[in-house]
Design goal:
single chain, alpha+beta, YaeB-like fold, five-stranded mixed β-sheet, globular, toxin-antitoxin system, Type II toxin-antitoxin system mRNA interferase toxin, RelE/StbE family, RelE/ParE_toxin, TA_system_RelE-like_toxin, RelE/ParE_toxin_dom_sf
Length: 104
């Protein structure tokens, strides 16, 4: 199954990596690879995350890190919708995001 990122999810990932890079570039690279590897596995195991708090989504916790990947599964594609720190109010963040322009 193909895995794609919504542009908002790409921006999320870029912001996470940029923030961590301010203090520790090597740590930022490790976080990037951990998130990317987790997302890549969704292509083979699209249901490995749990049912999401947002209708029609699933959520994947990144092992060993405080990040959550929000995604949706269609017949042929897994689309990553967001990457958030686990301390964020996910439902609120997604609701705020949906008030903006459609982003897929």
């Amino acid at each position: 199954m193909r895995v794609t990122y919504a542009s908002a999810a790409r921006r999320d990932l870029d912001a996470i990596i940029d923030y961590i890079s301010l203090e520790d570039r090597a740590a930022a690279e490790r976080v990037f690879h951990a998130i990317s590897d987790s997302v890549d596995r969704l292509g083979d195991y699209p249901n490995m995350g749990h049912v999401g708090r947002i209708p029609d989504t699933r959520e994947l916790s990144v092992t060993g890190l405080p990040y959550i990947v929000v995604y949706e599964v269609s017949a042929e594609t897994v689309t990553v919708l967001a990457v958030f720190h686990g301390a964020r109010d996910l439902a609120r963040a997604m609701a705020e995001r949906s008030k903006g322009m459609p982003d897929k």
